[in-house]
Amino acid sequence: MSLMTRILCDSLSSVFYDCHSTSCSYLRGVLRLSYYFTENNCNNTRNETAGLSSNYNESIAHAIHSMTVQGLQLFNPRANDQNTIPTVNHNLHDKNGVKVLPYAPNDALPSDYFDITMNMIDKILSMIGKSDDGLGAHWSSTERIVHKFHMRDLWLRLQKEVRELSPKPLASVCKCVLDVKSNGIFRAVEWIAAHYESGTPITLLDRPIPKLVDSKTWEFWKSDLLHYYTPEALHDAAVYLHCATKDF
Fold first, then answer.
1. What is the mean pLDDT of residues 100-120?
2. Structural domains in the chain (count)
3. Residue 95 is part of which domain span?
4. Which single residue of 134, 139, 202, 230 has CA 20 to 30 Å from 222?
């Protein structure tokens, strides 16, 4: 990376960390500019070979920001914590200020109930009020349950998408999408982590999210969550997850 590129990236990083309000409309631009201000940005690979969307870093970041080993095992049963998927640090009050982990952690469910549904709810509600709950103080119990089940539903949908990828991504494509520090994916996960400090960032669309309290606000939440079920968003995430899990 050239000195000028490094300076530009450092400047963008400074802007990013100085602004935590969801009303900062230029943050979305920062996410994309961080991708283009790198010398090896894989543009040709992205456009001509992989068929990824222009904002693939955001689609992928949403799909993986709360990924766990158990989630990765949906795509490869051999997956373990020796992975390189960037995720929001479950300990939002990490003493070293680490907001994003360079891996998806092990996060096993309890087993007191018979079905995974109740075990998921048990895990969610048992973590409320703890520093390592992965979401922070701004999420209601209902919102926590919706978030957890949405992510699992998305991963199950992506499991099908990954399985049906044809042709499979080339090695050059995988090299590009897995270079998360250069292609904007890591920075997009950082955006999510930063916004957990001030709200409930269920998307990277950079607009205010109402509290989920009734059927009307659920309509808003539902519409935003379905933003990541479009063919383009699913393809983006499937390409990344194929590349990230194929070699366990």
1. 97
2. 1
3. 3-245
4. 134
